[in-house]
Design brief:
The chain is about 10% helix and about 10% strand. It is mostly loops and about 50 residues long. It has one domain (about 1-35). Strand 1 (about 45) and strand 2 form a beta hairpin.
């Protein structure tokens, strides 16, 4: 199982706000077996949350 987690890689094409000509992007990375509590992340766009 540990070897499989080591195969996880960043996918820059999946970064939040990629290609939107902003001065920043957001990337998320799986922390592996040690951290098993999911984190919920919301994005606010205008008046809506997704």
């Amino acid at each position: 199982p540990y070897e499989r987690y080591r195969e996880i890689e960043y996918k820059p094409e999946r970064f939040a706000w990629r290609g939107q000509r902003l001065p920043f992007e957001v990337s998320f990375f799986h922390e592996g077996m040690v951290f098993d509590q999911p984190v919920k992340i919301n994005e606010v766009v205008g008046n809506s949350v997704r």
